[in-house]
Amino acid sequence: MEKTPMIEVRHVTKEYPVTDEKVVALDDINLTINKGEICCIFGPSGSGKSTLLNQLAGLEKPTRGGIRMNGTVISSLNESELAKFRQKNLGFIFQAYNLLPSMTALENTAMPLMFQGINKKTRNKAASYMLKQVGLANRMGHYPNQMSGGQQQRVGIARAFVAKPAIILADEPTGNLDSKSSKEVMDMIQDFAHRYHQTIVLVSHSPDAAKYADHIVHLFDGRIVKEEFRTPEGLLASSYLQKIPSEQKPDLISEQTPNSENSQDQNSQSEDVRSKAVHSELRPDPAGNPPQPNS
Ligand SMILES: Nc1ncnc2c1ncn2[C@@H]1O[C@H](COP(=O)(O)OP(=O)(O)O)[C@@H](O)[C@H]1O
Ligand SMILES: [Mg+2]
Questions:
Q1: Could you read off the pLDDT of 99-121 as tens digits, one per residue?
Q2: Cβ contacts of residue 287 below 8 Å, gap of 6+?
């Protein structure tokens, strides 16, 4: 498969002021997600997963750093440009489904097309096609409160994919579902994404969801501690463990992959070289100086 970068995150730091202190929710994140990839942002509660997804959605601005999505540097867009960017490029799947209670499954699914100014007949045709695809042909006129959680999330999936956005962002999409519904939902997301060559960023703390990913980004304390890539030979890992003190190493990354032992230094070195080459365009400081604290 061709490797075209779809999402590029460069030196992104996100700090939240809390009374006199600041919480560093993301600490110098560098990440490239390629077109057609299912990327799972994986980590324990509080590791910064949702904060990272919010930066990608343009719902919050990074304190420092830059993000390019589908060719647009979103970190420098204003609110109305961001709204247009989201409509054109992004689909969302939420843990709590976020369907509008006063609208039917069909109307909820057609929503993103309405924002794009597509006429009602075309909208309904596309929405009903998507609902059939997710197995809800006989639930089109149902309201959210007349459907199970699994069915509501399938409407959520139909809505996210109906406009065929380049990128779909999903925050714990199976977080409220039992294991059978979770599997159905993940199978559907994977199937659609591969069929339409879309890029998925999936936030989860569940190893079951991570199994669907081509690329797993392990977050801990706002930092990337490991990245894994699925290849025909199995999962290949790049380890960034050397960047965190050993007493802070989380359990979930304690197991070593066969090839990570002697390649750690090489990995970090080549990443540094790549950083200098391709990260320069998105660097917050044109002089290339390290970010200043409290700027
Ligand atoms: N609006 C906010 N104000 C202050 N702290 C926040 C805010 N949002 C998130 N945080 C903090 O940032 C860290 C990462 O949070 P979050 O991204 O929600 O983690 P996750 O989604 O992995 O559970 C946590 O320590 C959290 O308390
Ligand atoms: Mg979260």
A1: 999 999 999 999 999 988 899 99
A2: none
